[in-house]
Amino acid sequence: MCNTLSSEQVSQNATDRGEPASPADPSLVADLVTANHILFDQGVVDAFGHASVRHDKDPERFLLARNMAPGQVTAEDIVEFHLDGTPVNAAGRRIYLERFIHGEIYRARPDIMAVVHSHSHSIVPLSVVKGRPLRAIFHMAGFIGEGAPVFEIRDVAGTGTDLLIRNNELGAALAKHFDSHSIVLMRGHGSTLVAQSLKQAVYRSVYAELNARYQMDAMRLGEVTYLTAEEADASVRNVEPQMQRPWALWKEAAEARRASRS
Ligand code: MN
User: Fold this and answer.
1) Predicted confidence (pLDDT) per residue in 184-242, tens digit
2) Of all residues in the chain, what percent carry a pLDDT higher than 70?
3) What's the pLDDT at 2?
4) Catalytic member of 80, 98, 104, 209
5) Closest to 204 (Cα-Cα) out of 232, 166, 164, 175
6) What's 43's domain CATH number?
7) What's the pLDDT tens digit per position in 143-158?
8) Ligand 1 center from residue 21 Cα (angstroms)
9) Nearest to 126 by CA among 142, 149, 145
10) 98 annotated active-site
11) Å from CA of 48 to ligand 1 middle
12) Measured in angstroms, how far is the CA atom of residue 231 from the centroid of ligand 1?
């Protein structure tokens, strides 16, 4: 057996189907580009991971970059997809294999407008330790609540997968976990989280990673006091409305570092 990862294992070409919807609001596309850059600059994604947003003109479609590192995405790299993961205008460009994560969540949760999937560093350990769920430990991460569920791909696809969400069936199985949760860990893989907007999704992505890091630091020190469900809810209501403040800061930092790279 060859252990080299072929490009087919992490990306795909797929035939376009259908006509593009009315063009998405340019500011939405610009925000999706910015979200990609912030997620890289803040250490949530590296060369892998992706962010999407539901199309503002057609709720049965979503926008996601073509297969590339998030930190390098431009407006020209944004592709429109049907909820089943079929591209509309990829025009032969390679697309993310795990796009089914996004489409199946948008299908299952009509209220969700943005999705981020990542393998952020501090989340992965908590995805593999039994009985120690990711759980809100500070007010910036109340959306995590009293414990994030862990998606176990073996329950759906057996013990021999590559852990990737590579079809609609796996995407739908993952999407079920979002019934009453905003973030779901994926065992041995990473996490996916949902939000009502791109800015909220980026905010949550950064603070989910921080919560995971702080939680593991605290667990090493002793018994941990977590937020109650009521504290978590109150924190979401009162802290998340300020998400514009970190967005503006993170955007400026990401674009400054991006300019210094080019
Ligand atoms: Mn992944």
Assistant:
1) 999 999 999 999 999 999 999 999 999 999 999 999 999 999 999 999 999 999 999 99
2) 96
3) 42
4) 98
5) 232
6) 3.40.225.10
7) 999 999 999 999 999 9
8) 28
9) 149
10) yes
11) 7
12) 31
